[in-house]
Amino acid sequence: MIVERDITIAELAGLVEGKPLGDERKIVRGVQLPSGQRRDYVAVAWQKEDFHLVGEDVPVVVPEGWLTEGRTGIEVKDPQLAFAKILSFFSPKKDFSPGIHETAVVDVAAKVDPSASVGPYCVIKKDAEIGPGVVLESGVYVGESVKIGARTRIEHGVVLYDGTIVGEDCLIHAGSVIGCDGFGFLLNRAPKPIKIPQLGRVRIGNRVEIGACSTIDRATLDETVVGDDTVIDNHVHIGHNAKIGKGCVLVAMAGIAGSAVLEDGVVMAARSGVADHVRVGKGAVIAAHGGATKDVPPGKVYSGFPAREHDQEMKRQVIVGKLVELYPKLRKVLKSLDKEQEGAGESK
């Protein structure tokens, strides 16, 4: 939802660190797609085909050198970064009043900072610590000895199991579960698998964002760790004892098995996975649907299952694709060879 706010082109240029052109005093009140027609809304384009959709009388933010004389807009070095800043400016600002809602259940041994906001039907167990400016939206469960750092916001229905530590300035979206039992069982033990107790915890760093309905298991012993500035999409699972480095990106439905290690800056694309005890090196990328069953070197792009270097996987796929065309010819060659062998046998 866009919140309309008046700002001049000159002021907006200052916000996005760009150069205003044309009518610098023109007021805009919102942001729109390049195809939008509102003259009081700004559009942002960083591809030529999108720029051509923008009406001549619509103010626009574009890369440097794109605007012609007389056109009203802003030129910037990084239009995508400018777009993010503009969206933030016109985003609704939620107001969370400090205090504890009357329906919340807070143990007498819990510590809640006076500046924190605890929403309806939240539960906070004993020895939990809720830091300054923390926001717990409705229905959040905070287990025993949980610690939540300053200014972290936790959305509706999130569950933080006992002992979980969440850093400062984090955002955890609705329905996520942090610190539940790791999936540890002894298999092939008749008559059923034997459960291995999980006694560790989860530690989330600072400025981490976790998408809706994601799950992070607590360690068997010690900690499952998510490093500072990592972003996690919806429906991602991180297994027990896993170590996720700083600045990693985990896209929807990625799965990290127990005791796997992602070094700093790793990208896990949609529906990719890492097997247990596998290490993915710094800055490496596992492409969509890729499955890393062995260690991945730093900086490499791996794809396929089992995952291999991307260019090798592309060659493999090309060869496999050609086999469909080659198969009828191969059958003819094999039949011909069979006949030759039969003829050679009869001649003996």
From TrEMBL:
SUPFAM superfamilies found in the cross-reference section: Trimeric LpxA-like enzymes (SSF51161)
InterPro entries: Hexapep, Hexapep_transf_CS, LpxD, Trimer_LpxA-like_sf
EC primary class: transferase
Domain of life: Bacteria
A GO MF label: N-acyltransferase activity
Gene Ontology biological-process entries: lipid A biosynthetic process
EC assignment: 2.3.1.-
GO terms under cellular component: membrane
UniProt keyword annotations, A-Z: Acyltransferase, Lipid A biosynthesis, Lipid biosynthesis, Lipid metabolism, Repeat, Transferase
Gene3D superfamilies (UniProt xref): Hexapeptide repeat proteins (2.160.10.10)
Keyword Transferase listed: yes
Alphabetical list of NCBIfam families matching this protein: lipid_A_lpxD, PRK00892.1
Protein name in UniProt: UDP-3-O-(3-hydroxymyristoyl) glucosamine N-acyltransferase
Organism of provenance: Thermovirga lienii (strain ATCC BAA-1197 / DSM 17291 / Cas60314)
Higher taxonomy: Bacteria, Thermotogati, Synergistota, Synergistia, Synergistales
